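Practice problem: predict the structure.
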Amino acid sequence: MGTRADALAAAAREFDSGAFQRTLARRVAHRTESQNPESAAALRAYLGDEIAPSLAALGVRSQVFDNPLPGKQPLLIGRSDEDPALPTVLVYGHGDVVRGLEGRWRNDLDPWALTVRGERWYGRGTADNKGQHSINLAALAAVRAARGGRLGFNLVWLVETGEETGSPGLAEFCAAQRDALAADVLIASDGPRLHADRPTVYLGTRGVVNFDLTLRLRDGGHHSGNWGGLLRNPGTVLAHAIASLVDARGAIRIEALRPPPIPAAVTRALADIEVGGGADDPAVDADWGEPGLTPAQRVFGWNTIEVLAIGVGNAANPVNAIPHEARATLQLRFVVGTDAGRLGEHVQAHLHAHGFSDIVVSVGELMQATRLDPDSDWVRLAMRSIEQTTGRKPALLPNLGGSLPNDVFADILGLPTVWVPHSYPACSQHAPDEHVLAPLMREGLLMMAGLFHDVGEQAGTLPRRR
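Answer:
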């Protein structure tokens, strides 16, 4: 049976030989734009012609499924069962990308061709998410080769192709395929590290939900000279209504939408986390947000209400008229323990109590918050393994500030979730010039080979959920 060093050496050879780069180039060439209705064939081909053969080489049998929602993107499940007594690891990735935005990349780079410029590898999907799930596939292959054709655990793969359009049908699919996706833990990769030079582990995501506030007072505008001071101005009223929800320093004023106190384990995990500081990062406003919290606690351990858009009258060409209507779109980002499912009820009650009962509240789709306990055995394993491989203590984020469909894995499948990202904050994800850094790709490949090897080595002591 091969050693941990053998697995890392196999992973290093995969990268240093150029084989990993060639594989990623082939995957980038698939034009899997889920936002483009003409990409249906490309999405299915990526699963059937690219991912399925790669899984077969790992001894994983797979099947491509239609989405349970009509007209939505297909999904793939792969599974390899070595021994029912062993733990099962579910690995997730998404094969779709945002639009290529051809013609808007620097130096006329082709988004569908992997282009190397120094340490940067450019191409659509390099960071999100083809590069990341390619690392995990290659790491598993390295471990399997080092361990004589076995991983030491059972393996399930789930690949969707609609993440960039909100993962339609993913929840329904996982609920229907609960038996096929049965596992003991999710280990997956998406999103950026906290900083390029620090490996990162995160355990969940903040939830997110948008809501609209609409105030319509009358039909049509009325001359401000003739009617000013006599007619309520919806813009003024709506501005004061928003100010009742969140104060002038960004703190939430609706008690029902404030989170519970930050748990001690989360506070400990965030103690050495520094937010921002990168060359392309905006400066953090020290006096913004919930008072008494560190920047890390404000973005990873607390809730925020953000005004995304506000409209009244015609800002580009204002006229001397009192508008008839005002509208705003706000967003709640929230952590575990928030009663976000009753958001509309809470906002409407708060507005009514503050004299704004004629404002209509409309709530959008809700993505739930998730957070694995930082003291979980799976977290301890990941942190020890990555530090052993890299010689550096990883940043541990109890949850991302942003959102992923992690609630599907945590709530529907009931899994502890451990995410190990391989991108970095300035990767131009979703924009022209998307890229990854070659040193991060190589380090990520070794990290995941070490982690998967350690799962196999410690399989008998790891917690089971089935």
